């Protein structure tokens, strides 16, 4: 049995080892795109792939493709993968389970003596997290053409440094046009990931089979008020950017709650105030809003409400408001045959399964534009994620890896 060839001790120690490559003191993990920690993690992972006799290719922005060549290498390969970058103060499992678990699935298939007809490619995507440039899934977004090259060239981090600066510093100097892949570049893509929600653990379910992936829309507000002396300016004469931003943040929450869909979620995750002195009325706010739903109509209703309310708030308070849409993506529907295949493999292995939607976005959201996709979810502790106490047990991970290995075998026969 392939499952008997999974070496959980090795995989668990690799997850621990990778967890130690971080910009934050442990147990928090941070690996922002092309930071020193990210570069160390990438080098470490490439070593692991080479030890598993996989051939490596990196594209112009550092998407890494580790390939197990099949007997018929001209056929479109089967792909799996996820990300190793991590937002500030994150955990050890988000993305990592799909990358190291994918590597373990391939090693177990090799150890079982299986020889694939189609090549199997393990992808480590660049910048699934939005931290560096404010946009998530940069690697898969560019691979699938959702992010045109011209737009990617304009991206800048908070210090005004662009993608060319950072990719060059990481040694990726080939033509950026090599990132874009054609539809059909892969025969299918299956991503293993922690659920990042509490459902599987609460219900004691081993495997979540993802049918739909919620799509994010993200907005950046720049609010400009009058500022002034905290003692001298009377209340009726103020144009306080922070209070306008606070009202907008509450309007964001209300828009999600009243959208008519329980799956609409909205978060004001970035809120920067200037000048940041106790005796100075805030004259400027930068705020970023993340809005999601699998139901586009509900998401659009919430978006409309946010935009209308924020304009009213700023007019009433005499605040200048400039609004930028960072991204506004379509949800992804997973391929019904792949969903049934993952379900069947799970049941053959004696694991319980549940079909579900993904509230987090993933690289699968954009890989869906290149090939049929689905995702395999495993339970995580209380659904916690993007926090240092994120956790999935070795047994939960082993089950996910076993299902992934069997699925990759079926798809590469
Ligand atoms: O935000 C997300 O859904 C993903 O974890 N980057
Ligand atoms: Mn994440
Ligand atoms: Mn993730
Ligand atoms: Mn994700």
UniProtKB/TrEMBL annotation:
<keyword id="KW-0378">Hydrolase</keyword>
<feature type="binding site">
    <location>
        <position position="193"/>
    </location>
    <ligand>
        <name>Zn(2+) 1</name>
    </ligand>
</feature>
<dbReference type="InterPro" id="IPR036264">
    <property type="entry name" value="Bact_exopeptidase_dim_dom"/>
</dbReference>
<comment type="similarity">
    <text>Belongs to the peptidase M20 family.</text>
</comment>
<feature type="binding site">
    <location>
        <position position="129"/>
    </location>
    <ligand>
        <name>Zn(2+) 2</name>
    </ligand>
</feature>
<feature type="binding site">
    <location>
        <position position="94"/>
    </location>
    <ligand>
        <name>Zn(2+) 1</name>
    </ligand>
</feature>
<dbReference type="InterPro" id="IPR010158">
    <property type="entry name" value="Amidase_Cbmase"/>
</dbReference>
<keyword id="KW-0464">Manganese</keyword>
<dbReference type="Pfam" id="PF01546">
    <property type="entry name" value="Peptidase_M20"/>
</dbReference>
<feature type="binding site">
    <location>
        <position position="94"/>
    </location>
    <ligand>
        <name>Zn(2+) 2</name>
    </ligand>
</feature>
<feature type="binding site">
    <location>
        <position position="386"/>
    </location>
    <ligand>
        <name>Zn(2+) 2</name>
    </ligand>
</feature>
<feature type="binding site">
    <location>
        <position position="83"/>
    </location>
    <ligand>
        <name>Zn(2+) 1</name>
    </ligand>
</feature>
<dbReference type="GO" id="GO:0046872">
    <property type="term" value="F:metal ion binding"/>
</dbReference>
<protein>
    <submittedName>
        <fullName>M20 family metallo-hydrolase</fullName>
    </submittedName>
</protein>
<keyword id="KW-0862">Zinc</keyword>
<dbReference type="InterPro" id="IPR002933">
    <property type="entry name" value="Peptidase_M20"/>
</dbReference>
<comment type="subunit">
    <text>Homodimer.</text>
</comment>
<dbReference type="GO" id="GO:0016813">
    <property type="term" value="F:hydrolase activity, acting on carbon-nitrogen (but not peptide) bonds, in linear amidines"/>
</dbReference>
<keyword id="KW-0479">Metal-binding</keyword>
